[in-house]
Amino acid sequence: MTATLPTMDDSIRRGAEPARPRRTLADLPGPRGLPVIGNLLSIHPDRWHLEFERWWRVHGDLFVVRLGRRPILAVADGELVRDVLQRRPAVFRRMRTIEDVSREADMVGLFSADGDAWRKQRQLINPTFHARHVESFFPSICEITGRLRDLWAQAADERAARDVLGDLMRYSVDVTSSVAFGRDLNSLAGGPDALQEHLQRVFLGLNRRILAPLPYWRYLGLPADRAYDRAVVAVKRFILELVTAARRELEGGADRPARARTLLELMIAARDGEDPKARLSDAEVYANVLTMLLAGEDTTANTLAWILYYLGSRPDVQARAREEADRVLGGALIPTLEQSKRLEYTSAVTHETLRLRSAAPLLYLEANHDTAVGDVAVPAGAGVMALTRAVGRKPEYFGDPESFRPERWLAGAPATLPHEPRMALAFGGGPRVCPGRSMALLECAVTVGMVLRSFTVHLADHTAPVRERMAFAMQPEGLRIRFTRRGGA
Ligand code: HEM
Known about the structure:
alpha+beta, CATH 1.10.630.10, five-stranded mixed beta sheet, two-stranded antiparallel ribbon, 11 strands, 48% helix, 10% strand, globular, disordered N terminus, binds protoporphyrin IX containing FE
């Protein structure tokens, strides 16, 4: 059995009340900045998470960074990070710019909404992400995984190196859409009009605007911003068609409420429902369709791409995972639901990848009112950067933290190294913990099981280092994989 991550109930428990503040932000260390702009010049939009983590190694678990005049408290102490995540939405919220920038594109959905608007949406959306519900879509996940296998089998026959990240993004859009909306978009086979490319542009644009010190795009029409605006329009058109089709289908039957099965159907039913408190506006329905596509796509695709990276660079790990897949799957090439739950070492590889290469290495928050983090007073409006990946790289929580050691996640692993699964925060924590966690882990188990049974994974080009790139979610840049078919596959 693999050790499990903290449960939702676990993390919803109230965090400790902060101690009486003894220090202010001005008392804390931090990188030296320039007058007026502070540390802004060090924040490269593609790699800013690495800069924060570098500062963490120099200044410790609590330090201050200034973006312009704005102070940001960076926190890497595990207990304090969990406490901050826990005290949402009352005391802390996501950085307000995330909501502002999302509002401009009509996309204030579950990720960017806050306060009561967030509560209402979360209550509605939570049940559709329960493992049981996700599993009822298992046959479509298998079908989509079969398409991915065909694509990579062809690449293996042509001896072509693949940009696996692009393939995996299309794959995870198809899976998310199938589970959340009951629609298989088949973008993996070149389906609707490069939807995934538009989503990618939206992602990059959001990242750029959220980090921008000023809303320059309101006054300047830079080419990248025009491309972002066009992508938003294209995605909106696509989603409105999806919503209209689902509404037409729902209205077709007399048993409408009983038929609401998917997130999209539930949202449409709630839009017209009798309880005014639960009603969703058209804008909220649109925003949440987009949120799910964005949130489900990059995060899972990046995680899967990093898993392939580790399989390719660690033949010992690949051999052990393959032996397990052969044993559990027997002659099958794609795991059944029951088999995917028995892939314990594969699951350990996934958790170890999430620990070292989390798609969200830091979470960007803000204090709603004057409060404290540990013994540090935090004024209303100050930013709080929760360095969640740094927490998972601390030797007191995970021994030998920089090494990729999947076996640490196996039950019965020797207790020689510290191992604190509750400090693995790749899915966040507290009431806003990622609702897509079960779906993502199931996708990883099925995809990796399929890969191990069908192919041997090789890094295509050992001379080009794979780098981390932040594009709202953190991704491997320059990763190319070569697949060779296994005998009989
Ligand atoms: C390996 C894959 C994934 C990772 C690493 C990941 C990570 C995260 C993280 C770190 C957060 C912020 C949590 C917090 O603030 O405490 C989050 C939120 C969220 N995720 Fe995921 N996620 C993944 C997959 C998915 C999938 C597949 C979906 C849905 C299809 C999804 C939907 C969401 C949504 C809607 C939120 C916002 C929740 C809220 O604010 O209440 N995620 N995710």
